[in-house]
Design brief:
Elements lengths: L2 H74 L5 E5 L4 E4 L6 E5 L2 E9 L7 E3 L5 E4 L8 E9 L5 E10 L4 E3 L1 E4 L5 E2 L5 E5 L6 H6 L1 E6 L5 E5 L3 E5 L9 E7 L4 E3 L2 E3 L2 E8 L3 E6 L4 E6 L2 E7 L12 E4 L2 E9 L10 E10 L6 E5 L17 E4 L10 H7 L6 E5 L19 H5 L1
Parallel strand pairs: 2-8, 9-18, 11-19, 20-28, 26-27
Antiparallel strand pairs: 1-3, 3-6, 4-7, 5-6, 7-8, 10-12, 12-15, 13-16, 14-15, 16-19, 17-18, 20-21, 21-22, 23-28, 24-25, 25-26
Amino acid sequence: MNGQPISGASAGFGSGAGIGAGGGGGRGHGRGRGSTGVLALVLGALLLLVTACGGGEAGKGGEDEGKGGGGQAVGNTASQAVVTVAPKDGAKSVATSGALKVTADKGKLTAVTVQDDKGNTVEGKIAAGGASWEPLAHLAAATKYKVHAVAKDADGRESAKDTTFTTLVPKNTFIGHYTPEDGSTVGVGMPVSVNFTRGITNPEAVENAIEVTTEPSVPVEGHWFGNDRLDFRPEKYWAAGTKVTVKLNLDGVEGRPGVYGKQAKSFSFTIGRSQVSTADAKSHTMKVVRDGKLIKTIPITAGAPSTTTYNGQMVISEKYRVTRMNGATVGFGGEYDIKDVPHAMRLSTSGTFIHGNYWASSGTFGSANVSHGCVGLRDVRGGWDKKAPAAWMYNNSIIGDVVIVKNSKDKQIAPDNGLNGWNMSWAEWTK
């Protein structure tokens, strides 16, 4: 190929030489030979240069084209990964548990984000190997969610899926009434107690939706009393100064078939100083110990032989500067109805109190048991005497303080009779 253009050029110049020879003899001939040689060399060099350059570019272009074409084909080829989201896009009345799941076929999930319409993120976990993702907790009811999921195939190409769905609107709901109050300072015996407005038949789901955290950290476990009450406590009394935070993430929890929680609330409280008082029904005295030190010994009267006081660990759950005590409300008929009992603090749901007593003679306290099951301390009518033992005890006690009764000729108080779960061993509590 390269030889033909040079030969063609020489033939052309040969014709020119012939014309030159006919017109001017040797001079024309000589010029024709010289021109032919030089021009032929120049043209040949140019043609070689053009051919070399052209060939090089073509080769280079061919290579780049092959590489570029191949790279472009990989880059533009759709990912083989297929992302599937359940429930389907636009679904309504979706169950709050068990319905949401993201999967990847021919690839691995790399990111999944689920948010409600307020921007709150649903925590979840991608399974080992990246084949699926599921939420770590239930969803809220009557809420719209957005799902964004990304997966990669074996070549690293991404595939994404975006969907929305709305959870069901429950017809029947429940909430939990809790104690202690948010922001309160309580005694070392105060449990977290939640009473539900509907009987719970799915206790595991409900308990998992309640989180109790402490600072400093201490293990806290829940225990069910029946199907409508759940209490939380540590193994031993709280340490003074502990800060406790409770999160009720009940919104959307199916506590029983067709009945869903509608509560999402947090509250916190602080454990104050430690105060544990021990009332000895045999010696008719009560010793008050604060932060490990005995600070006062008080004469008392406990339950009479026919109406003895429960033994056991009891927690002050309510305080009344003055209250009415009617025997008819606790099974004693019309035996008593005192409208102005001073300095009363509740120890049980069934009616056990530690309170002021102005109607018994002063010599009774410290020497005899005459009450209908309460722990009585000397007081005056109206509770005006701040130096009276009952007034002192009332003013130096807070909700959550512990009162232990011992040596009474009665049984131990039931753990669910008041906030008195401390009467169960840790093994029983966590069973």
